[in-house]
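> @MW can you paste both from yesterday?
MW: sure, first one:
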Amino acid sequence: RLAGMVGATGMVAAGAAVAAAAVIGVGVAMYSATSSVQLMKANLTTLLGSQAAAAQQFDSLAAFAAKTPFSIEQSVEAYTKLGMLNLDNSSASMTAYGNIAAATGKSMTQIAEAMADGAMGDMARLGELNVKARQEGDKLRVSFGGVTKTIGNNSKEIQAYMKELGETNFA
């Protein structure tokens, strides 16, 4: 009888240990998620200059992430990278870039980095998106899907071209 009681007590103790580990695991995950959100909001605050603007933008990016295949982390990171480089990170551009990312199997962060490189004159990453670019003086001949167009070799026109592709060819 004593052996049976010891065995039952041991099983109860083991069950309690498993339950405690599960509660600790949930607590760690909640802490990690909370600190991740706080970090994203801090990055947005730095970029936008106020906590109110950061909170509003975070909510917009959360809504964007909810209706796309991209996580909130990817969305905030892409938005922040574009903004830090003074590139277009408007809702319309984020949607267009998201279309490109989804169609090419890239992350939002990779698209933001390709846009940043392209805006600085490095077209290699745009080539990974099947956008071919060749410099001709102060112009850029860009081709996608057999259609070639001449644009200015500057950040504004490269961004406009990529946004147009995202809105038309990848929508």
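MW: second:
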Amino acid sequence: PMRLLAMTLDGVSADAGVQHGISVGLHLLNIVLLFTLAWLVLPPWSAVFAAAVFALHPMQVEAVAYVSARPDLLATGGVLLALLATTRGSCAGAVAGVVVACLSKESAIVAWAVVPLWAVATGATTFPVRRFVLIGGVSASVMALVLGARVAAREAMSGQTFTISTDGTLA
């Protein structure tokens, strides 16, 4: 769903420069989120170094360079928001961040396990881990069912071919 929303926003302009600018903007937002998170749990110079490495490391250059990889940027932002909310003690913010991440990219479902581990590792004493695990368990189960349905639908459609006629309808 977040991918479809992002691609709908891409339809506002067919200009590749605008679309690339959106990806760069999302990457910059993720850098700010990571820096804020690192600032809360690391010494200041370590936070600056962590954000600089995240900003400049070429490992995930495709996420910024290719519009088709935008779900990676959205999922990263969702996970970073969830970890930041966890550090601040907000269960609702953590759930919202993980949901955004999971709606952006299916592989972000692991964030349901990462967030409570982050809370324990950082000593976020005001974060309600039990409530998050309960909400997360139910939400992750629903998302796993949705993912299973998507896989089953893909399997059922494998081997079928679709063509788009000149009037834009599927045949």
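> thanks! Residues 129-157 form the longest helix (29 residues).
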